[in-house]
Amino acid sequence: MAKGACIILVVLGHTVEWYGRAFLGREPELWFVVLYGMRPLRMPLFFMISGILAARTIHKPFRDLWSKTGGLYILYCLWTAVYCLKLALPGGRDGLPYPSLAQIAGAMALPALLWYIWALPAFYTLAWCLERWFGRNSVYALVPMLGLAIAAPAIGRATAHLLGTPLFMIQSQSVLGNLIWFYLGLKGRAFILTLADRSTPPRLAIATVLGIAAMGLMRFDHDGELVILAAPFMLWASLQWLGKVRDDTGALRPLAVVGRRTLPVYVLHTFVLTGLTPAVRAVGVADRVPIASAVLQFAVPLLVTFLIVPACIFAGRCFERVGLGFLTAPAPLPSRARHKSEAPAPIVDSSTLASAPSPLSSELAEHPLARGDR
Fold first, then answer.
1. H or E stretch including 143?
2. d(CA 80, CA 42)
3. Which of 28, 73, 129, 331 has the fewest CB atoms within 10 Å, i.e. is most exposed?
4. What single-letter DSSP state applies at residue 289?
5. What is the pLDDT of residues 191-225, one digit of tens each?
6. H or E element that contains 73
């Protein structure tokens, strides 16, 4: 459920930007305040849950993590190539020169378009290496990761425009700022799930007040410097709420469905918004309705978001049925490597057990957050 809510907030943020760019020439002020205030929660919560899920598989052989590493990275390269082809279309780059081969190679290698699909393989690979090399001591990697999160805004400003126009900016700030939450979810899985399970009304009230205060703190933020300070309070508040909310109710079940289908939503929604721009301009919407009114500035992005999300999920399922599932899913493991991965698992030497995670209770292992249902 939580992953579904996070990805919907991502789509809403991009839809608000689209509305402002297509109709207003600026971002709608109300949504800008709300969405910027949610910045310390949206992606940190998503990546923390991804880390919780990764904790159950990170000790497997690396080839068994293909769908989370190489398969996802190939999907990232595929859609980066699609975007580069789109730039070749008439009007695709607003008169700017077509990117050079070096720029395209940089866009493939670095986190630019669809950066979260680049980040997850990088995070899984780094976490797998840390577990193999340092075992239990790998938890201390959180210290330099905290330093990277603090420095992320400055690094982001220094590297954002390395690719040059008309390609997307390098999203190093987003990647470095969210690495710590992924790894915290992986290493602190038992503590985080217990924290959610032990939610009480007093804790919920205190966490909610602190979360709202942290959200208000973002009004004084300029370029993400305060995210690392606000995120712990907003994450704690979200965990307290997740411990109380039942995700099997009819109203919340769709969020769980979206949470299990984040890839088609994330991959396709930006291209849908890109296609909507010439469509609404051709119809002349701006000349027929008061697009600058506060009501429409608030309502239209919400309406478009709640139309795009199920449309992307439906499109992803259609791709699967017609043999185009590779467009919205990790690339499959090459056949030769797949045959090797299906071989019997080797006997684990007892000396390696010290680095293995301690077994959790069955109740904790089946927690909805650990399954990705929330």
1. helix 142-159
2. 24
3. 129
4. S
5. 999 988 888 899 999 999 999 999 999 989 888 89
6. helix 70-87
